[in-house]
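Example for tutorial group B:
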């Protein structure tokens, strides 16, 4: 570093320094020039001052050399900047996205692209309401319309407004039916609305367009499993297993879900084979216990159930199996012990109350047996009611009252999170549904107080 004080010659370098720093700012802020070139320019002017007495000559030579060198570093094309910003959003890179948004600011002909990146940044920063306003501007330009509609739907969905999210997503699909992300969000919307057949159609589109994406196949399996279409669920889960990398930890969850389907189909050998590939957690051991017990091997069922309880003393499945085995052996004391613990874990399960009723009958407590039988019948009726409401909601995607009733019934069944989801959907369809609004507010207070 040279000193610019004390001598007239070095004092003459002051304008050089000022000019070079101005050029440094110009190249850095306005022309996106590489940093190494910026510092080279600054160093060059200082060095030239040592050998040239005239600061004017120094600046002239420096500027000329700088402009010649800058021609080797053209400014990045704004389209490339925009594409880089979109990629940054897809990768969750907020810093790069913000930088690209800043670089597009004020660029002629790229107003809508800048608005889209601004909206994507808001989405990534968990501010979907702000994002929607920016997407409105982006939707006016053909170049950004598809993405604007897609991410408007995404933002509305994140705001808990799936009924409103459907239209912009359908508009995006109208522009480009080959974008798997559009179908993925539509599947989520229809799933939340209870329209399972349309959700499955959209998932099939995702699977066709993204052969390596296991998530759509797995979600399809989950939906089919929920609706007791076990054979179709098996096919979907097998597809997911073909797509998922062998080292992905989610693979174990899929194996467990698939084994559950085989268990429902009474294909015990297939279920056991899959379960041996899983980590021997309490859930896996409890399912192995159920396989052996249902197949008629009570001894192995007991062994696996006790192993499950050793890992998780509150395992509902293991407690139910041990209670059922004790009940079959007319060991009323052991049956009551296990079944009462199971009822503490899932007080709205109808089967546990019906088996408790049988245990109380064995010991001659008719009053308690009657009470448990009534509870079992009540919760079984509520479960059937929920299934019928769900089926009706599948065929009527704009009925807020059906979804309110689903929420209330879910509450009766002790499923507050599911209840909250249905109540939110009801309000998404009809924001003025007063009962849904009141019930949701009370439920939210209860959940937050836990």
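The residue assignment follows.
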């Amino acid at each position: 570093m040279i000193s610019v004080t004390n001598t007239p010659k070095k004092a003459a370098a002051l304008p050089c320094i000022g000019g070079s720093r101005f050029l440094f700012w110009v190249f850095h802020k306005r022309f996106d020039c590489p940093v190494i070139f910026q510092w080279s320019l600054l160093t060059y002017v200082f060095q030239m001052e040592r050998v040239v007495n005239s600061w004017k000559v120094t600046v002239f030579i420096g500027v000329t050399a700088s402009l010649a060198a800058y021609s080797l570093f053209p400014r990045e094309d704004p389209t490339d900047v925009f594409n880089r910003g979109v990629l940054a959003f897809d990768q969750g890179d907020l810093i790069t996205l913000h930088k690209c948004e800043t670089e597009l600011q004020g660029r002629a002909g790229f107003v809508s692209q800048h608005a889209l990146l601004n909206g994507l940044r808001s989405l990534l920063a968990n501010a979907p309401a702000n994002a929607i306003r920016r997407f409105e501007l982006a939707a006016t330009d053909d170049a950004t319309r598809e993405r604007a509609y897609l991410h408007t739907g995404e933002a509305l969905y994140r705001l808990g407004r799936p009924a409103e999210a459907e239209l912009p997503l359908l508009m995006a699909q109208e522009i480009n039916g080959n974008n798997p992300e559009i179908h993925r969000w539509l599947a989520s919307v229809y799933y939340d609305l209870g329209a399972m057949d349309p959700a499955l159609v959209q998932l099939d589109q995702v699977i066709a367009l993204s052969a390596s994406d296991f998530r759509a196949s797995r979600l399809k399996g989950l939906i089919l499993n929920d609706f007791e279409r076990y054979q179709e669920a098996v096919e979907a889960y097998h597809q997911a297993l073909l797509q998922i990398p062998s080292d992905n930890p989610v693979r174990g969850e899929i194996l467990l879900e698939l084994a559950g389907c085989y268990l429902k189909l009474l294909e015990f050998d297939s279920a056991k084979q899959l379960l041996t590939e899983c980590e021997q957690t309490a859930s896996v051991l409890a399912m192995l216990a159920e396989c052996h017990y249902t197949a008629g091997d009570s001894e192995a069922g007991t062994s696996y159930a006790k192993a499950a309880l050793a890992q998780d003393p509150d395992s509902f499945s293991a407690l139910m199996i041990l209670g059922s085995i004790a009940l079959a052996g007319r060991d009323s004391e052991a049956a009551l012990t296990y079944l009462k613990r199971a009822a503490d874990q899932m007080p709205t399960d109808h089967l546990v109350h019906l088996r408790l009723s049988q245990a109380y009958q064995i010991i001659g407590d008719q009053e308690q047996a009657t009470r448990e039988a009534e509870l079992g019948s009540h919760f079984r009726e509520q479960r059937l009611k929920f299934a019928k409401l769900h089926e009706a909601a599948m065929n009527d995607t704009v009925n807020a009252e059906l979804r309110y009733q689903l929420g209330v019934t879910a509450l009766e069944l002790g499923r507050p999170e599911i209840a909250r989801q249905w109540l939110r959907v009801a309000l998404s369809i009809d924001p003025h549904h007063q009962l849904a609004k009141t019930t949701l507010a009370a439920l939210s207070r209860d959940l937050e107080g836990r």
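Residues 1-18, 25-36 have pLDDT under 50 and may be disordered. Compare this with the pattern of hydrophobic and polar residues in the output above.
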